[in-house]
Specification:
By secondary structure, the protein is an alpha+beta fold. About 25% of the residues lie in helices and about 30% in strands.
Length: about 170
């Protein structure tokens, strides 16, 4: 993926230096819904995330609801390491799985609650072109999530919002 490639996403206008609370989620949704999609390079996206802005990788028209999904080019896999019956997945292990499965993320970032003892991070994948078919979107995210035993399987909805971070963002 060329570094000058641009991706259309929706971005919150308010940054957070710590994980937003449940109460703050309605404000994030309203601001993202009220804003216009932004066309960002990989480096610009990394800066947005690193500065604590929440994003929606999907473009939603008419409100922040799954049924308003129109297109998407970026897909994020949330690795929470919350499944006690599975071994923890470190960032290097996750990147190794990507190599094995022949999928290459464009970046990854550590979430607000990431620690070395319990890694929590997101892998960001980019399709060559935007996806306009809902069934294809669903297939892509479900397939990506299935590669990682510690991925948050609930993060498949079309209207998913991902928080930024106060930790590292790494371009690949």
């Amino acid at each position: 993926m060329p570094q000058e490639a641009r991706f259309l996403i929706q971005v919150d206008t308010k940054a957070y230096q710590q994980k937003p609370s449940g109460k703050e989620m309605s404000g994030i949704k309203a601001r993202i819904q009220g804003g216009k999609p932004k066309s960002l390079t990989v480096a610009q996206l990394a800066e947005v995330i690193k500065n604590g802005y929440s994003i929606s990788p999907a473009i939603l028209k008419g409100g922040l609801k799954a049924e308003n999904w129109t297109q998407q080019q970026l897909f994020l896999v949330d690795i929470d390491n919350d499944t006690e019956s599975e071994p923890l997945i470190s960032i290097p292990k996750a990147l190794g799985i990507c190599t094995l499965k022949e999928v290459k993320p464009i970046m990854y970032y550590e979430s607000y609650s990431h620690t070395t003892q319990k890694p929590k991070f997101r892998l960001v994948f980019a399709m060559d072109e935007p996806i306009f078919q809902e069934a294809k979107r669903k297939f892509i995210i479900e397939t990506l999530i299935s590669f990682f035993s510690q991925a948050d399987a609930a993060c498949t909805n079309a209207d998913r919002i991902f928080f930024g971070t106060d930790k590292g963002v790494f371009l690949l």
